[in-house]
Design a protein that fits this description.
By secondary structure, the protein is α+β, with helices and mostly antiparallel strands. It has a domain of about 250 residues: Catalase core domain (Catalase HpII,  Chain A, domain 1, Beta Barrel), CATH 2.40.180. The protein is built from 15 helices and 12 strands. Helix 5 runs parallel beside helix 10 and helix 12 runs antiparallel to helix 13. The chain binds protoporphyrin IX containing FE. The site of protoporphyrin IX containing FE has 28 residues, from strand 4, strand 5, strand 6 and helix 9. Its EC number is 1.11.1.6.
Length: about 525
């Protein structure tokens, strides 16, 4: 505690004294320094200028997507197995190996489209992003709650997000813009059938599933690779809300999901999720009528069982929202040995985008911030300087050497892994082509058929309400797509919009589409 006689303090008040960032004690925090009590103010008024100019810079740009979120801490506990088999058969990643081994984690839940203070009751995908602070450095798994995504090629991401964000003129989220884009992007149908069902508004974060969505790889000691998908299952079960439920919650509270999670952790009611992994051999799987690298598809669990590999528990809230929730930075490129990318064309684009935006949003030294630093491994780089350098990543024995190689000290390269080559050999010509097995409707239709009656009613109601705001050609194209997804869905939404199959039979498939035989059969039934 700074010992200073403070004009403002009462005698005997033992609380620490306020200072400025230079360490100067502040004895008057109510009045600026002025010439006489009525001014003018003086420019050397350091305390006032520091306080005000720091306040002027309090905000950093919010995330371009997933701006509203809630971070909590906890641990991942490994089972050491994938089903009955030792996990080492499939991955050499250290965090998974030993039964009972715990790795600290930070998890950020989020909504996607709204701003930092927007309502958490929105119909919107939810983010489910985890940072594992492993002994080999950080691993980030950045997923959502709906298992699939709107698009399958990263080049369309700015467009899909622009269509979902507020209109640049009215600044309202406009269904007319959303379905204008989606109706020309048939790969979005599976995601839309999920998003407009009750699953599109989870009741809160504790009753929500998570999915890695993109296809990743596991690599074992021998360099053998598998394709994998990650699933998080909440121990509390899954709960959703209808529009009416959500409106009632929103009337009283904009941040109900963050509040629910924060309060549960405060009272020691720690939420838990189990991590399940689906796996398949690392090749193209020509026997499937969908592509394993397509993030608009799920892998049927009958053929590719989802088996448990560990669990997470959240047991601690952040101490400061800005430092730990606003500045936490996840990325799909952040992997550790034994885990790898696939050639999923979304994953590749994502991997560029996250650290690119974070160097802009948080700053080039974002990885020096405590919440982003590895906690269980050491950082030693030759990266230097840049805005907000917080410390020098420790050098080798000679502080003059911030380069490598060197014979005068400095850092050295690590041990070359025993198996450096992995995965199938890839051949092809440089091109711009969509994948061959697009199959945009089948899984969307299966999802619809799996729903309970009330969920289907809710889906139809929500589709009709949103699509009715669209222009006639967009409505027709949406009904056409929904008939291709499942007759019953297309007929019911069409009825709500006053558009029957006869009204859409003049529509040709889009130039961007490849139809399956099954799709062609449906198409001929329209006519
Ligand atoms: C956040 C880009 C697809 C899940 C973000 C951010 C960007 C971004 C720029 C903001 C990051 C930050 O400011 O720290 C992209 C691109 C995508 C893509 C370019 C496709 C090419 C996806 C998909 C998912 C997803 C498919 C779900 C599987 C998330 C999550 C966050 C996020 C959960 C929030 C992370 C946090 O809580 O900080 N994305 N994204 N994104 N994205 Fe994506």
């Amino acid at each position: 505690m700074t010992d200073v006689s403070s004009k403002g303090s009462q005698p005997g008040d033992e609380r620490p004294v306020l200072t400025n960032r230079q360490g100067h004690p502040v004895y008057d925090n109510q009045n600026q320094r002025t010439v006489g009590s009525r001014g003018p103010a003086t420019l050397e008024n350091y305390q006032f200028l520091e306080k005000m100019s720091h306040f002027d810079r309090e905000r950093i740009p919010e995330r371009v997507v997933h701006a509203r979120g809630k971070t909590s801490y906890g641990f991942f506990e490994a089972y050491g197995k994938w089903g009955d088999e030792p996990i080492a058969n499939f991955t050499r990643a250290k965090l998974f190996q030993e039964q009972g081994k715990r790795t600290p984690i930070a998890l950020r839940f989020s909504t996607v489209i709204g701003g930092r203070d927007s309502a958490e009751t929105a119909r919107d995908p939810r983010g489910f992003a985890i940072k594992f602070y492993t002994e080999d450095g950080n691993w980030d798994l950045v997923g959502n709650n709906l298992a699939v995504f709107f698009i399958r090629d990263a080049i369309k991401f700015p467009d899909v997000i622009h269509s979902l964000k507020p209109d640049p003129v009215t600044f309202r989220q406009e269904p007319a813009r959303i379905f204008d884009f989606m109706s020309q992007s048939p790969e979005s149908m599976h995601m839309l059938v999920n998003l407009f069902s009750p699953r599109g508004i989870p009741s809160d974060y504790r009753h929500m599933q998570g999915f890695g969505v993109n296809t990743y790889k596991w690599v074992n000691e021998a360099g053998e690779t598998k394709l994998v998908k990650y699933h998080w299952m909440p121990k509390l079960g899954v709960r959703s809300m209808t529009e009416a439920d959500a409106a009632a919650v929103q009337a009283g509270e904009l941040g109900h999901a963050s509040k629910d999670l924060h309060e549960a952790i405060e009272r020691g009611d720690f939420p838990e999720w189990e991590l399940l992994v689906q796996m398949m051999d690392d090749h193209e799987h020509p026997e499937l009528d969908w592509d394993p690298l397509d993030d608009t598809k799920t892998w049927p669990e009958n053929d590719f069982p989802a088996l448990p590999v560990g669990r997470i528990v959240l047991d601690r809230n952040v101490e400061d929202n800005f430092a730990e929730n606003e500045q936490i930075s996840f990325g799909t490129g952040v992997l550790v040995d034994g885990l790898d990318f696939s050639d999923d064309k979304m994953l590749i684009g994502r991997t560029f985008s996250y650290s690119d935006t974070q160097r802009y949003r948080v700053g080039p030294n974002y990885l020096q911030l405590p919440v982003n630093q590895p906690k269980s491994s050491q950082v030693k780089t030759n990266q230097r300087d840049g805005q907000m350098t917080y410390y020098v990543d420790s050098s080798g024995e000679n502080p003059h050497v911030n380069y490598e190689p060197s014979i005068t000290g400095g850092l050295r390269e690590g041990q070359f892994p025993a198996q450096d080559e992995q995965g199938p050999e890839i051949r092809g010509r440089v091109t711009r082509k969509r994948i061959e097995r697009t199959n945009d409707y089948k899984q969307a239709g299966q999802r619809y058929l799996l729903m309970e009656d009330w969920e289907r009613d809710d889906l139809v109601h929500n589709f009709v309400a949103a699509i009715s705001e669209c222009a006639r050609p967009v409505k027709e194209r949406m009904v056409w797509h929904l008939l291709m997804v499942e007759d019953d869905l297309g007929l019911r939404v069409g009825e709500g919009l006053g558009i029957g199959p006869d009204d859409v039979k003049h529509l040709e498939p889009l130039a961007s589409q490849d139809l399956t035989d099954e799709d062609r059969k449906r198409l001929s039934n329209l006519g």
